[in-house]
Design a protein that fits this description.
407 residues, hpI Integrase, Chain A, 3 domains, 16 helices, Integrase-like_cat_sf
Length: 407
């Protein structure tokens, strides 16, 4: 029989060799290591069972595994088949953990999202859900288990984040149901269990006279020329701040008078067309000699290889005296939406130009050029209207002919 000393001192030779213990157990020694094996017969056939690798599996442990195999053989059970089944169960469980399913869902679904959205969702999962539920088999997770995790987030005062994590977890559970790895989505049971979050709207100026004052302040901005151009373009295109600062020259078509933003930059992951008014074109032409040789229209002051900072526009607004509860870079979207609706422009055209998610996926796929003729007309009108406000024109409250605008 083998001893611990003999096993420890066994050295590799030119050819693999075996050192026998008892009852079929032996140590196979070769150039790559030492392996425990057991020879046995089942159903009249000679077979070999792999027990483990030394020193991870000691001599004592190897003998225990051999004895367990002998007990199975006494019951007409093939230990090799039992081992394969157990290995499959463990592997399947690993593939069906919440983390494994969530990462699979994210990899498949994130292709339709903007890069920033994909990164944010993954970060929420990794920091706030995986540490507690990541290694759990997803079908075994119940609503109370998820609630405990969400309450941890709420305990930090991050109520909105808790709601978002519930939403993202729900998407993962529904994907698990669709792929046969869970029976139901327990996140639905938690509606009303979390602290309600009051919807916060981005601060925005919507009074026409105040808009005129803001536009005059922007035109008189004494800071960076690049920043002033970004401020001047923002109300004319009313895209999201991240879409504005990541704007690239390759996306601008001066002949067609449009800015085509690729899907990976958009919140909804779809190509978005921004018709460019005469005023928008003039702003772009004015900055082109300065940044046109680079990638970004509004590059960082530190490196032309990066876009301007996400705080640049808001910081400029603060320098002009507008507090964060008065106006933000995102507020240009609310400004446009409010005034365009008040002047009777079609809701559908406004929503498409804002690139909102309002679309019927059952009837048809998203068409990034939908309502484009009306949107071009609307954007040109909007630019002229802003010029009137900036010039201090008398503000008249009226409704445009809705019949003409909705044609």
């Amino acid at each position: 029989m083998l001893t611990d000393v003999a096993v420890r001192q066994a050295k590799a030779k030119e050819k693999p060799y075996k050192i026998s213990d008892s009852s079929g157990l032996y140590l196979l020694v070769n150039s790559t290591g030492k392996y425990w094996r057991m020879n046995y017969r089942f159903a009249g056939k000679q077979k070999t069972l792999a027990i483990g690798v030394y020193p991870a599996v000691s001599l004592v442990d190897a003998r225990k595994k051999r004895d367990e195999a002998k007990d199975q053989l006494a019951k007409d059970i093939d230990p090799a088949i039992t081992k394969a089944i157990n290995k499959h169960i463990v592997r399947t469980a690993a593939e069906n953990t919440f983390k494994a399913v969530a990462l699979e869902w994210h990899a498949k679904t994130s292709k339709t999202w903007a890069e920033s959205t994909a990164n944010n969702i993954k970060r929420y999962l990794e920091k706030d859900i995986f540490p507690w539920l990541g290694n759990r088999v997803i079908k075994d997770i119940a609503a109370p288990d998820l609630l405990v995790v969400l309450r941890k987030i709420e305990s930090r005062g991050a109520h909105e984040k808790a709601q978002r994590c519930r939403e993202y977890a729900g998407r993962v559970f529904r994907y698990a149901v669709a792929t046969g790895r869970a029976e139901r989505d327990p996140s639905g049971d938690l509606r009303g269990a979390l602290t309600p979050v009051k919807v916060k709207h981005h601060a925005s100026i919507t009074d026409p006279k105040a808009i005129g004052a803001l536009l005059r302040a922007i035109n008189g901005f004494s800071g960076s020329f690049i920043t002033r151009c970004a401020l001047q373009l923002a109300p004319l295109v009313f895209v999201r701040p991240g879409e504005l600062r990541h704007a690239e020259w390759s996306e601008i078509d001066f002949d067609k008078k449009e800015w085509r933003i690729p899907g990976h930059k958009m919140k909804m992951g779809e190509v978005h067309i921004v018709p460019l008014s005469r005023q928008a074109i003039e702003i772009l032409q004015s900055i082109h000699p300065l940044t046109g040789d680079g990638q970004y229209i509004f590059p960082s002051i530190r490196s032309g290889a990066r876009p301007m900072s996400e705080n640049t526009v808001n910081g400029a607004l603060r320098r002009m005296g507008y507090e964060k509860d008065e106006m933000t870079g995102h507020g240009f979207r609310s400004m446009a939406s409010t005034l365009l609706h008040e002047h009777g422009w079609p809701h559908e055209a406004i929503e498409r130009q804002l690139a909102h998610a309002e679309r019927n996926k059952v009837v048809a796929a998203y068409n990034y050029a939908e309502h484009l003729p009306k949107r071009r007309e609307m954007m040109n009108w909007w630019a002229d209207y802003l010029d009137e406000l900036a010039a201090g024109a008398k503000v008249v409250n009226f409704q445009k002919d809705r019949t003409r605008l909705s044609e």
